[in-house]
Amino acid sequence: GSKPSNPAFWWVSDEGEEVKWSFEELGCLSRKAANVLSEACGLQRGDRVIAVLPRVPHWWLLSVACMRAGVVFIPGTSQLTAKDISYRLEASKAKCFITSDRLAPAVEPVLPGSRFLKSKLLVGKGSRAGWLNLKELL
């Protein structure tokens, strides 16, 4: 009765910023994120998404959202080169690319060369022309 439930997700940044989500909050947020992937990004079951993100809370949120939407989540490290990203885009036939507002300038020059890419999703506070902003869509 009086004991609070444990969080489903608890993240602490290097600066001490904390993000705690209960199971209910994680469920609600992941449903919303799955809707963003399906509706705003136009993805269907079996489509592939490449995510080049640092390990921020939205990395885990999007991985759960992809499972909910039936979308294949392909994680990538921020150390990938332009050649690595280009190869992964073509080999996977990814239809969506997800990255942070800080990494977007580095990966953006590679993206127009992809034949399959339909949408680009930005995680963070900033905005960029041609990119959907996850925070705004949630």
UniProtKB/TrEMBL annotation:
Signal peptide: none annotated. One of its GO terms (cellular component) is mitochondrial matrix. InterPro entries: AMP-dep_synth/lig_dom, ANL_N_sf, Mitochondrial_ACSM. Keywords: ATP-binding, Fatty acid metabolism, Ligase, Lipid metabolism, Nucleotide-binding. One of its GO terms (molecular function) is ATP binding. The keyword Ligase applies. It comes from the Eukaryota. It is an enzyme of class 6 (ligase). It catalyses: a medium-chain fatty acid + ATP + CoA = a medium-chain fatty acyl-CoA + AMP + diphosphate. The keyword Metal-binding does not apply. One of its GO terms (biological process) is acyl-CoA metabolic process. Residues 4-118 form the AMP-dependent synthetase/ligase domain. Belongs to the ATP-dependent AMP-binding enzyme family. This is medium-chain acyl-CoA ligase. The gene is Acsm3_1.
